[in-house]
Amino acid sequence: MKRRITTCIFAFCLLGALHAQAQETPQAPAAQKQEQRTKTLEPVVVTAGRVAEKPTTVTQAMTVIPREELEKHQYWDMGDLLRNYGIQVDASSSGNEANTNISMRGMRTQLFGAALKGGVLVLVDGRNAGTANISMMPLVNVERIEILRGPAAVQYGSSAIGGVINVITRRGAEIPKLSAEGGYGSWDTVRALGEASWAYGPFDFSGGVSYLSTQDYQSNTFKRYQNTGMGSLVSYSLNAGLSFLEEHRIGVTLHGVEGQRMGSPYYYNVPDQATREAYTNRYNRSLDLTYDGGYKDAGLSWKGRYYFGSLHNYWDDPALTRSTQTSNNFAEQTNYQGAQGQLSFTKGFLTLTGGLDWQKYDVGGYSNYYDSRAWPPGGVQSDSSAAFDVLGGFVLAKLAFFDDLLIISGGLRHDKYVVKASDNLTPRRSREFVHTSPSVGVAVNPSKWLTLRANYGESYQVPGHRELLGYNSTWGTYIGNSGLKPERGLGWDAGFDVHYNSLNLGVTYFSTDYRDKILIRPVPGSLDQQYYNAGGIAYYRGIEAQAGYDLGEAFAWPFMLRPYVNLTHLLEHRGQDTHHNYRDVPNVSDTTVAYGVQFKHPDIGLNVDLRATYYGYRQEPRFSATDPVTYKTPIKRTGGETIVDLFATQTLYKWEGAGTLSLKGEIRNLFNAKHEMVIDYRMPGRSFWLGLRYDY
pLDDT tens for residues 396-409? Predict the structure, then answer.
């Protein structure tokens, strides 16, 4: 696999070099050659410095997914989108990804998507999204998605160790836009989408809603995988505002995802459990009130935001109750709110940004576990509550010299976390964490088509209330540890970006030392487990690369033909286990690659994307084979599969001034390959979907 990755990168570099040489002909004037060499990037990004800036002035590795890319391809959920950009995405089923984990540079989000837990931070419009479970993030009314790779604690606080994913919502413009889409596919899959945006005078709005439902799917062996369907998943987003005095805007943003009767399947290879009826109901709702202002003549701009929302998760298994063996249900409600305020000053070569972030999370939940096989029969009910109160202040500075030839950035952040937790068996406990995070970076632009960059940053992750307090569940008793320290990540990276004519290429080497990792270990003389801080350091070293080369543009063809590749390859990901032995970190793939070919012919209105996703090898606990007495779980090497998908859009009618009607189709898992993102949870076999889309 390493040879294959190296060959791909070398081939893209060679193509770019050959084409660059071909463009250097004596017949072309110097000004024309310079124009040919320059590839225009997205005008601004906002995630790295929390203010609008050009991508060439960002000292960290970034990936920007513009709206044109979202409209061109058929991404229906956030997991499908991120897989195509070399990010590891794990789900126990497809079409119903109730729990979806993501991993960047080996750092993973938590299983149940807690907002302040995990190594990757998910944002919406620059603030915490309230969850790290990307299946609870709407993919409608999106202007662009910015992926900041590497430590970002200075900008956003806890959990931004592996990186940040920032979903930026769309705003209305003077030209009205309207889109509608609907279709039907395998396993009674129904998808529908509607979006609209407009600006009239000082008012602007943009919004969208999507709907998805599906029945249980079949595996590659055409065996029905029970309980993988979904009653409904409705996503919605609205961004509306009022502009005044040229530089000021008051806005309101509404986001929501509502999932009903989302099946929660059991292990695929356990026949007697194949008809389990466990399901989950989930929702994530939030409302933002924003104010953006500035005074350009003085180089000042400022932002203010207050937001609040709620995240709900209910899980139940009626089949267990009927079996008279066990009954189990679980519910958790998180109410969150926060405020942001920042002031930026730009004058000459200096940009200085400072501000305060406040977040508050109130988490309440319960779980019931009853076992009639015990004597005397009985059970355990656990009611728990927790509160997280977070206040952080930050300062970010950027120096730009010699017309952006040299960029130096730096920042400092100080956070104070107060965590309070209790349950029906334990009195309320409180812990306070104080953490300071620095960062420094440099970028050099020796030409308009080449950017060199390097960055160092420190990041961290606070313990959760379950780790501090402990809890009871079907799987056993987990004893908390009130003396836990935050996990810490010390990371640096270096790389380059090339945007030259038809070639886009970016390569980054990264390294992260992960310390005080929180693990669980058996308690001597019992079957209980306890949380603790592992000694030693976990090492993550790897390479990220993104490349694309438009052959149609390079050779002046009347169509686009663009091969591309996005990959993350971990050269090393090792840490201590419970026996203090250094092993590969489990559940982390050594390689994630998405590659393919895009074809677009505007004259005939055809757009095709043939895409392959390779899931690399990893060490994964096989819980379906866990010894119920000793709790010993075997570790199995999984991965190595490649899944090929085909997407196509054909314009049917185009009315002058009245919009466009298109036919869309897709074939997933084109070659009907066996595939599991999580061991013993089989993903779908070959599937089809066909729909219509109208754009105005």
Answer: 999 999 999 999 99
Q: What is the pLDDT of residues 437-470, one digit of tens each?
A: 999 999 999 999 999 999 999 999 988 877 887 7
Answer for the pair 597, 645: CB distance below 8 angstroms, yes or no: no
Q: Report the alpha-carbon distance of residue 430 to residue 415 in Å, rounded.
A: 17
The percentage of the chain sitting over the pLDDT mark of 90, rounded to a whole number, equals 55
Tens digit of each residue's pLDDT (9 = 90 or more) over 410-443: 999 999 999 887 766 666 778 899 999 999 999 9
CA 405 to chain CA centroid, nearest Å: 32
* Tokens found for residue 511: 């390294």
d(CA 513, CA 509): 14
Parallel, antiparallel, or unpaired for β 163-169 and 120-124?
parallel
Average pLDDT, the chain: 84
List the chain domain ranges: 2-695
Separation of first and last alpha carbons in the chain: 45
pLDDT at 31: 37
Distance CA 216, CA 224 (A): 7
What does the block give as tokens for 419?
Answer: 């965590």
* pLDDT surpasses 70 at 1: no
Indicate the residue type of 621.
P
Token pair listed for 392: 């952080």
Which of 56, 60, 39, 38 shows the shortest CA–CA distance to 48?
A: 60
DSSP per position, 399-412: EEETTTTEEEEEEE
- Check whether 129 has a pLDDT greater than 50: yes
Cα separation, 226 vs 272, whole angstroms: 12
Three-class SS of residue 553? helix
CATH of domain 2-695: 2.40.170.20
Q: Where are the alpha helices (DSSP H) in 63-126?
A: 67-72, 78-83
Is 322 in a helix, a strand, or coil? helix
Region 160-165: what's the mean pLDDT? 92
Say how far apart CA 67 and CA 692 lie, in whole Å.
Answer: 19
Q: Which pair of structure tokens corresponds to residue 50? A: 């929390």
pLDDT of 26 higher than 60: no
Which 8-state DSSP code applies to residue 45?
B
Rounded distance, CA 577 to CA 380, Å?
30
What's the length of the chain? 696
Each residue's pLDDT tens digit, 72-103: 666 777 888 888 888 888 876 655 555 678 88
Please choose, from the candidates 101, 156, 96, 95, the residue with its C-alpha nearest in 3D space to the C-alpha of residue 129.
156
**b/e burial code for range 75-86 (CB count within 10 A of at least 16 → b):** bbbbbbbbbbbb
- How far apart, in Å, are the Cα atoms of 353 and each of 50, 157, 294, 393? 8, 16, 13, 11
Structure-token pair, residue 674: 């066996």
Q: Around Cβ 297, how many Cβ atoms within 10 Å?
A: 6
Cα 185 from Cα 162, distance rounded (Å): 36
Q: Provide the total of helices (H) and of strands (E) in the chain, helices listed first.
A: 8, 39
Q: How confident is the model at residue 13 (pLDDT cuts 50, 70, 90)?
A: very low
Residues 6 or more apart from 43 whose CB is under 8 A from it?
54
Crossing angle of helices 2-23/30-37, nearest 10°? 160
Instruction: Check if the beta carbon of residue 641 is closer than 8 Å to that of residue 673.
Output: yes
Instruction: Report the DSSP beta bridge partners of residue 681.
Output: 678
For the four alpha carbons of 75, 81, 85 and 91, in that order, the dihedral sign comes to: negative
CA distance 534 to 518: 6
What distance in Å separates the CA atoms of residue 142 and residue 489, rounded to the nearest whole number? Answer: 31
pLDDT (tens digit per residue) in 573-621: 988 766 667 788 888 999 999 999 999 999 999 999 999 999 999 988 8
Q: Compute CA 322 distance to the chain's CA centroid, rounded to the nearest angstrom.
A: 38
Which among 386, 343, 337, 385 has a CA at the least distance from the CA of 358? Answer: 337
